[in-house]
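Example 5.3 — Acyl-CoA dehydrogenase
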Amino acid sequence: MADHEDDAAIVRKVENFVRDVVIPYETDDRRDDHGPLDALVQEMRAKAREAGVLTPHIRADGTHISHRATARVLRASGLSPLGPLACNTNAPDEGNMFLLGKVATAEQKCRYLDPMVAGNGRSCFLMTEPAAEGGTGSDPSMMQTVARLEDGEWVVNGRKAFATGFAGASFAILMAKTERDDGAAAATMFLVPLPHPALVQERLIGTIDSSMPGGHAVVKVEDLRLPPDAVLGAPHEGFAYAQVRLAPARLTHCMRWLGAATRANEIATDYAVKRQAFGKPLIDHEGVGFMLADNLIDLKQCQLMIDWCADVLDSGEKAITESSMAKVAVSETLFRVADRCVQVMGGTGVSHDTIVEQVFREIRAFRIYDGPTEVHKWSLAKKIKREALAKS
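Solution (predicted structure tokens):
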């Protein structure tokens, strides 16, 4: 947690820590196909705690630094795929911290939020469901997991998919369909301590990305019984709380991956300056030099888009539209940056000799996670139509 030092100083400390301490861990073999093992994460977090850069976006008194300052901090932590894990700015924990800080009770914050801010445990967010069963993905209204009140307890049944970090998490935020007193369909969020016998991991999904401890699980929820105080916030307000979480969470994804793409571009540039081909450095060949020039332009455009959306959030607006625009623009643009980095480096770019190939894979997944590009564009198009019709 950061104290009340200058925001720019926090950014410098985080960047220096990631470059000097975290990057050497990129060759550490304590990882599986899904991501770093918890032993590696905790070792890095101990060093981050000692350096004063653990959970740097939250001050010691529990208040958050601004979204604009958070953009700089998370970009710095993202300079290594391990940086967000080391500094405790990673997804889904960062988004879950934000949501708990907004809607959790004092008792819930003490039990769930405080240990996570201190870096002592991970969390997961259970909303997405298996597509083969018609469950919710980008459309929460399709949710099949149901919670019903029975004898003063909530009883939850269903199945969740792409439960990032479920294996090894200390608690879950679980979203389920509920029914209001008037019979209207709604959703409620619950806090569930883990491990729990009613939540069973059926399998881990093999995916293109490999930066998430615990991977992405399919989880069966069977006769999960929860007391009333397990409800996060108020009953039946799950859809509203999802927007509270997802709008800034989309932007913080952009922030972290801007850092990763910046680092990939640094590696590709260094390669192009030192690698000789046809009698001169690669960068002196127009085809290569122009790709790196395009990267420089794209990285700056992403930074400006992130700053703009962060300023909207800092103004107190919900920024749902702005975060959708930023998610589309930044994920698509950074993918082009990562792709050019691979191309500049040729065979080395697709090897494990650098993190460039991993950044390429991770950002490709980012174009889908937290809402695919096409869903965000569809939502924006609906807004455009509504506003046009309102003016006619």
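Remark. The mean pLDDT is 94.
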